[in-house]
Structure formats: structure tokens, C-alpha cells
Amino acid sequence: MSGTQQALVAGRPIVRLHRRVSSWGLRGSDYAWAIAFSLPYAAVFLAFVAYPVVYGLWLGHKPALYRELFGDPLYASTVVNTILYVGVGVNAKMFLAFLISGFFMRRVWWMRALFLAFILPWAMPAMPTALSFHWLLNGQFGLFNNLLWYLFGIDGPIWLNSRWTALSSNIIAYIWKFMPFWTVIFLAGRMAIPQELYEAADVDGATGYRRFVHVTFPLLANLYLICTLLSTIFTVGDFTTVFFVSGGGPAMSTEVLATLGIREAFTVARPELGVAAVMSALPVVILIVIFLMRKLSTMEVQL
After folding, report:
1. In this predicted structure, what is the pLDDT of residue 59?
2. CA distance 135 to 142
3. Are the C-beta atoms of 152 and 141 separated by less than 8 Å?
4. Residue among 138, 228, 122 nearest 176 (CA)
5. Nearest CA among 181, 143, 170, 162 for reference residue 240
6. In the Cβ-directed half-sphere of 224, how many Cα atoms lie within 13 Å?
7. CA dist., res. 106 & res. 117, Å (int)
8. What confidence tens digit (pLDDT) does each residue in 232-278 have?
9. Contacts 24+ apart (CB under 8 A), 216-220
10. Higher pLDDT, 39 or 175
């Protein structure tokens, strides 16, 4: 081997080392820029997510608060209202949204205009939607009672002066407000089903409700379950509907945990008790989240 060749071979490790050092330097600068751009997001997360949660846990960690809360008769009725509001509202909303999504699958020229009108309650802000529903139910000059009088000559009830009619009004307003969103989700799920499956079902004689039972629902069952779990988590913390439709009345008989927590924290000026009221639903929410995560992991394995 000549001297030139030996010099070239001996210089290769130096060139490789230089390349490695250069690449490490480039990667180090990339990491530095990545960290620099991530710091504002980390600061926002710590300030507006982590700190409120930790502070809330610290406020509501005293056992004496929960003994006082559980001993209050208002809390027991609030838990019952929350179970009814979440259980009836979520399941009725999901069932109706699933059925109505099939209706909007029809290919007619006026369906788009009808669908646009259908999703307007969801597209509007929550507060004016709930307030409009509150005034529709006004016992003296509300639209519902006026229609009952002009069409049937019936004096309508004072809807918001009874616990059960007021709670039912909250549930109906909640369904009316949020059902369009889940209808869109189910509509997208229906549109993702291959048309060949429906054609094969028609060949096998599965038409009408049989096609729904044997094709549509089995394929959308996981989507239906996941949407129901997510909606349950969202609805447990829903404050706007109850507060602006019935206001928790009459005499705080339609309070749910979200409105009770806000009332204790701001009206009564006991934030620790308000946090305890809201945190009392945390074990149920955690169980739902764990079940949801397991369901999603099972779906990933199947895929």
C-alpha cells in the first residue's frame, strides 16, 4: 500500500468522528430549539391546567368537608338529580341521535337545508340557547303555554315551579342542545360503512330493520359505546344548562353537582366546600375513564 493510500485510510476515522460531532451539534441545536418552543406551552399547561387541579385537590382534601357535605340533605337530592340528569339525558340523547342519523342518510334535495336547521341549536352558544328555553317555559307568557291555550284552550302548568317538571325541562333542553353534535358523529360513522355490505345484506334478504340489526348497529356498536362514555364524562360537569334553564330551582331542588359546587364556591363563599361537592363525582369519572381507555386499547389490538 502506498503512502498516499495509508494516509487516506488513516484519515477516515478522523472524518467519521468529525461527521459524528457535527451531527451531534446539529441535533443538539434542534433539541434546544424544540425545548425553547415547548416552554411557553409547558408554562400555559402548568398555570392553567396543573395548578388549578392541584389547588382544587388541596382545597378538597379534608375529610371534615366531606362529612359536612354528605350530612347535608341538599347533597343527597343533588346526587339523585345528577344521576337522573346524566343517565336519562345522555342515553336518550344518544339513542335519538343514532336514529336521526339514519334519517339524514336519505338522498333528497331538501335534506341539506333540514340538516342545517337541525344543527343550529348546537352551533349557537350554550348560554343564549338555555336562556331561550327558559323563557319558552315561562308559565305566564311562554310560547309553550300560549300554544296550549290557543290550540286546545288548556292552561299550561308553571313548568319551572315543580321539581320534576323543572328537572325534566333541564333534561329536554340538554338533549335539544347537544343531540345535533352526536348526530353528526353517528352520521359520519354510517357514511364510513362500505356500501357493499348493504348490497350483500339485500341479497341475503336482510332489509329494513333487519339490515339495521345485522349490519349497521354491530358495525357502529363500539362507536356508540365510546360516544356514550365521553358524553357521560362531559355531562357530569355540565353547568350551563341547569343554571340557565331552571336555575337550580325551585328552592334548589334541581341542583346538580356542577351547579351545587359553583353555588357553594361563589354564592356561599365557601370554595373548599364547592370543590368537595364537585370532587365527590371524581371516583365515578375515573372508573369511566379507565373503562374507556381499556376499550380503546382493545380496539387497537383488534385493528
Report:
1. 67
2. 6
3. no
4. 122
5. 170
6. 17
7. 16
8. 999 999 999 999 999 998 989 999 999 999 998 888 888 888 888 88
9. 216/102, 216/190, 219/189, 219/193, 220/98, 220/186, 220/189, 220/190, 220/193
10. 175
How far is the first Cα of the chain from the last one, in angstroms, to the nearest whole number?
A: 59
The answer to whether 241 and 174 are in contact (CB under 8 A) is: yes
Q: Nearest Cα to 279, choosing from 61, 13, 31, 34?
A: 61
Could you report the per-residue pLDDT of 165-220, keeping only the tens digit for each?
999 999 999 999 999 999 999 999 999 888 888 778 777 776 777 777 778 888 89
H or E stretch at 83? helix 73-103
- Which distant-in-sequence residues (6+ apart) come within 8 Å of 4 by Cβ? none
- Cβ–Cβ under 8 Å, residues 119 and 180: yes
Residue written as cell 353555588? 263
* Tally of CB atoms within 10 A around 176: 16
Closest CA relative to residue 230, chosen from 274, 285, 166:
285
Question: Angle at which helices 163-191 and 73-103 pack, to 10 degrees?
Answer: 40
Q: pLDDT by residue (tens digit) across 10-32? A: 445 544 545 554 554 545 566 77
Look at residue 138 and give its three-state secondary structure. Answer: coil
The whole-angstrom separation of Cα 24 and Cα 178 is 52
Scan for cell 460531532, then name that residue: 21
pLDDT digits 0-9 by tens, 157-166 = 888 999 999 9
Mean pLDDT of 62-76: 85
The verdict on pTM exceeding 0.90 is: no
Cell numbers placing 288? 369511566
